[in-house]
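Explain this one:

_____
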Amino acid sequence: MEGVAEILGATRPDILLLTDIDWDLDGAALTALADRLAEEGLEYPHRLALRPNAGLASGLDLDGNGRTGEPRDAQGYGRFLGQGGMALLSRYPLGEVRDLSDLLWRDLPGARLPMNGDLPFPSGEGQAAQRLSSTGHWIVPVATPGQALTLLAWAATPPVFDGPEDLNGLRNADELAVWERLLDGAWGPPPPAPVLLGDAQLDPLDGDGLREAMAALLADPRLQDPGPRSDGGRLASDSTGAGDPALDTVDWPEDGAGNLRTSYILPAAPLRVTAAGVVWPLPDDPLAKAAEAAGPHRLVWVDIDP
């Protein structure tokens, strides 16, 4: 928590989405973090932490290994209910939240469902119960000064740790597709002034997964990609990937996935973006140790002129 608090104390965001934060029924974890941030002079009176799909028991064998009750049999991977959820903290009031987290994967228009030959994977019963969101998909109006914004927040499953059916790869891509369908009007008129933000766990050029899905979203003319960059990310990379390492947002080991761009803030095209970046300090920066202590993911930020 100390590394996170130091980074946020230095950057002082008005609106903050946290991913991979454990959820609990009484909100004790989020309250403790908010109290610690208050010590840094950061007050977030408006907070949201809905129950995630992570660790939500399904009672079924959702990974097709013949056993039930394991972390991968939950609606989203989790050893316990709420492991690795999401939380939103804001200086500005939040409006009525719309939660798409209970959307069944098979009910997504154009869903790319995993198959075992000609049969649904892991089974027809499994697909009839499987939610699409591994963590959550939230639509959150925020009463920002001037023009109000609508946050589209999510955290996707990694597109790995599966078999030839590519369950996680397909699910990861369809977790992105939720927002495309929303902007298409699949569930009514699209929300005004949308801003997508979250951990897509997907790089458009490097790493595992259906990279073309991320590339297509970044190219959607209804959105803009501010291209947040950092000198720290550029310096930290020793890979030969196709992407610009200055755009990387996560510091994975080079003998594993390597550094990738996986976290995004994508405002609606008409919104005026004035600045953007990734908090990836250079080694001699006083914040370097705090960034490492905060975890492998680096803070991505975008300034929007109201």
